[in-house]
Amino acid sequence: MNSLMSLLLLYLSLLFSLITTIISFHHRRRHAISGPPTYPIIGCLISFYKNRRRLLDWYTALLSQSPTNTIVITRLGARRTIVTANPSNVEYILKTNFPNYPKGKPFTDILGDFLGYGIFNVDGDAWRAQRKLVSHEFTARSLKEFFITTLEEEVEKELVPMMESLAETEKVVDLQELLRRLTFNMVCRVSLGVERCCLDPKEPEQPLSKAFDAASTICARRGAAPLVVVWKVKRLLGVGSEKELKEAVGEVHKEVSEMIAIKKEVMGNNNGDDQDLLSRLIAAGYEEVEIRDIVISLIMAGRDTTSAAMTWLFWLLSCHRGMESAVVEEATRTATRMEGLEDMKLLKACLCESMRLYPPVVWDSKHAVVDDLLPDNTPVRAGDRVTYFPYGMGRMEGLWGKDWFEFRPERWFVDNEENSCELKRVCPYKYPIFQAGPRVCLGKEMAFVQMTYVVASILRRFEIRPVSQKRPVYVPLLTAHMAGGLNVVVKRRCQSKTETR
């Protein structure tokens, strides 16, 4: 019976794709829309398959060739997709006509098994209610103070001693994994009030962290599948990667639910510290499943994004020693505590430039509710996937100039020089690393504080030297990362040039 249902589902999906592809082919001919070579029935399936292992660079090349920096992708077995690197379109999607571009059911289906009804996977009233709650908590002075105290403790008591030990032995370490563990501990302590793992990459990962990795990877593969029906049939039959996803999500749910139960017990005994976000959600009276899904979304958002950004920055600075020296000098002459972070403008410019070239989130998709027309005159039909593409936007000559491919932090200063004292205000729709509009990232300020403090604390004390001269490979999943990690040797920085504490 399951096999018969699967075949029927496959047949209906292919029939629907065939009809929409034929319509799109004739529509493209009438409107001269930019995109890859597209044919009746199959759409651009041939080009897509040929470029499936380099989709980011393929999309970027197509966008740079388009007069509007917008392309339309139509292929058999997939929803019609509009990909844009045009800031006017991005502003229209994320702000001007925000109600017409929710995440949509196709998106929430992909992540629903993992994120449930958490803030990053819902629209409408459910999103507004969670956004209001989380926004209130994120702006609370007490949570900010708790975050800063936790960050200082994690860096000074855990990260720095670990780096000292690595410098003593000069053993090779995966810096990406070390930073991932640090940020995972941070988000667990601030969100859940618990510490989950040892920073040493040689120690085994905790079950929650491993399950998060597995679930994130499989959900990302769902989104990139050439035929949506494939993963849906596998889920229906409970086989392959979908079986693995079910097991991983079960582990995540079990771990988080246990933490909620323990937290409730502690709070019931009046022995709890209510500064963490989980305590606040419980006190607000939310149901356990709602709390679980919100917490899972927040862990996913805070766990890999900042660690990925820092990893790419350390690699870029190792390739630009002059800029590294300037950042070290800035970090050394400013205060070693939180008070000096606002003065580290060059380091913030370096972070912005690193995320321009290697954004933690490669793209983000919405789904049109009704027919529409984008500002660049690209027609949108109800149900279309509309994707803005930060990776490609960071590589558009029209946005960043002929030197877009260069790591040049000085482009972020008003006078285009690193010794300038004022950073530019860059349009968030030109640089949508933290989204923009009503769904702008609530943790943006905390993310910059965390990255600035961690990077400055490391560079002030240590030299980070990659062991390989090869260019790392950028891997786009739900959050992007460096394939194989970043293996480095840690050395103490010469004390005659800089302070160590």
From TrEMBL:
Coiled coil: none
InterPro entries per UniProt: Cyt_P450 (IPR001128), Cyt_P450_E_grp-I (IPR002401), Cyt_P450_sf (IPR036396)
Keywords for this protein: Heme, Iron, Metal-binding, Monooxygenase, Oxidoreductase, Signal
UniProt KW Iron-sulfur keyword: no
UniProt signal peptide: 1-24
Domain of life: Eukaryota
Cofactor(s) listed in the protein's UniProt record: heme
Gene3D superfamilies: Cytochrome P450
Family: Belongs to the cytochrome P450 family.
Protein name listed in UniProt: Cytochrome P450
Provenance organism: Linum trigynum
Taxonomic lineage from the root: Eukaryota, Viridiplantae, Streptophyta, Embryophyta, Tracheophyta
